[in-house]
Amino acid sequence: MTHAENRGETRPDDALFDAILYPHRSLSPRGFLILMAAITCCSIAIGTAFWIAGAWPVFGFFGLDVLLIYITFRLSYRDARRYETVHLTRAALTVERFVRGRRVMEKHLQPYWLNVRVEEERSGPDRLMLRTHGQSLEIGAFLSPPEKQEFADSLTSALKEVRSA
Questions:
Q1: Which residues of 50-85 are buried (b: 16+ CB within 10 A; e: fewer)?
Q2: For a Cys staple, 14 with which of 10, 75, 138, 159, CB 3.0–4.6 Å?
Q3: What are the tens digits of pLDDT across the range 7-29?
Q4: What is the distance between the alpha carbons of residues 35 and 37, in angstroms, rounded to a whole number?
C-alpha cells in the first residue's frame, strides 16, 4: 500500500469510471424462436389456403417471407455483439470499440479538458460526443436519447472529480 492510498487519495491509474455500452435488444432468443414459429405457422396456413384455391406459386412467396424475416433477425443479433468500453483514470479516458468480440478502435483522451455533450441533430439521431484539444469522438451511437443523456451526465460527474483533484 502506498502513502497516497493511506491518505485516501487515488493513483493516476486507478479507475474512477468504468462503463460498457452495448445495444439493447428487447427480443430474447426464446422470444425469437416463438416469433419465428408463429410467423411460420401463419405463412403455412395462409399459403396452404392459396394453394388449395389454385394459386400455388403464392405458397413459395410466403416461404420466402419467412426466410427474409429470419435473416433480418440473425443480422440484428449479430450486430448486438458490438460494444464500447469507457475507462476513466486521472491520467486518461480510454474508449475501446469492439465488433463481434474483436477490438476495432482504441482512443486515449486527456480527461482534464474533455467536454462531454449530447448534440441534437436535425437530420438524424442525437450524437454523444467527446471533445478535447481539437479531437472529437462519437460514442454510444446505438444508445437511445435518454440513455445518451444519462451516460453524459454520469461521465461529466466523474470528470468533475478528476478536475477537482
A1: bbeeeeeeebeebeebbeeeeeeeeeeeeeeebbbb
A2: 10
A3: 345 565 678 899 999 887 778 88
A4: 5
Q: What's the rounded Cα separation, in Å, for the pair 32 and 110?
A: 43
Q: For the chain, what percentages of helix, strand and coil (3-state, to nearest 5) are there?
A: 45, 25, 30
C-alpha cell at 123: 437530420
Q: What digits encode the pLDDT tens for the residues 37-53?
A: 999 999 999 999 999 99
Alpha helices in 29-144 (DSSP H): 29-52, 57-79
**Does position 1 have pLDDT exceeding 50, yes or no?**
no
Do 87 and 18 contact (CB within 8 A), yes or no?
yes
CA gap 150, 154 in Å, rounded:
6
Largest Cα span, the chain? 86
- Over residues 89-99, mean pLDDT: 92
- Tell me the Ramachandran region of residue 101: left when phi exceeds 0, alpha when psi lies from -120 to 50, beta otherwise: left
